[in-house]
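Comment thread on ticket #2218

A.B. wrote:
> Attaching the input chain for the structure job we discussed in standup.
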Amino acid sequence: LLELGYRVVGFDNLAPTYSIAKKRHNLDLVYGYASGEKQFQFVEGDLRDSKRLEEAMNLIPIDAVIHLAALAGVQPSIADPQAYVEVNVTGTLHVLETAKKLGIGAVVSASSSSVYGDNSKLPFSESDPVNHPISPYAATKRAGELLAYAYHHLHRLSIACLRFFTVYGPRQRPDLAIYKFARAMLAGREIILYGDGSSRRDYTYIDDCVDGILKAMNWTLAAAGSRPRYDIFNLGESQSVSLLELVAMLEKNLGIKAKRKHVGYLPGDVLATFADLRHSEALLAYRPQTKIEAGIENFCRWYLQEEKGKPWEILK
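C.D. wrote:
> Ran it. Output below, let me know if you need it in another format.
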């Protein structure tokens, strides 16, 4: 957004879900892209604080909101479902209500492939039934989609909900599998594999994810005001990769053989994800450019050159 010349207000609570030092480091990188203080402003605040959120959304004239803030992850949602409802559902409500109040007509909201649950029909299409979430996280993401539709219908907001499929790449969260595997392998420690390694995921490279977000933003802006619209879009690569295949790619690019420990599957996890992108391509012209093999190569290069040895990277 900054490279495209937009003025941007960032809003985040810098929660200690992983290293705050890493979050501030990433924030410093964002400031480095800005041409000055007026182009990028950051407000530290919590979605649950509607007053603070409104202050942030009132700093400059805003055309569109890109709502990516959430508590993420299936297992933590099982441990603390109340927090997930407060942040992901009530927080999303606050974003939509504030957009309505301030006359902001375009909203892009992050959903998740987890809403598909343990669907045996592959690939997943936006028209598939999503009435059986198998984790609190998935349920909160589906609730966010439904709230978004209600605000579109009642208040004429133009909204795109994006179902992300396992986003990865440089500067990714350190609490996710690819980062955790790389860190453990380089430290000579074993990696934990849930199940026999046959579970499959559709991975979305970060550059393709950003491209999809920008195209969704333009789609909502084109219809804001006069003819508002609402839709849901898958953002993935449309390739399903097994856990063992992923580990093999990391081994190849890091030059290290992984020490593997297989344990049982976790509750709430699904056996496979796979994105049908026909709808996203037709309406957004979304076409992912980075295959998983190239994406893992890029991630490993970044990790070895820029991330290795950082205070938050070192295993204690």
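A.B. wrote:
> Thanks. Noting for the ticket: The longest helix spans residues 81-102.
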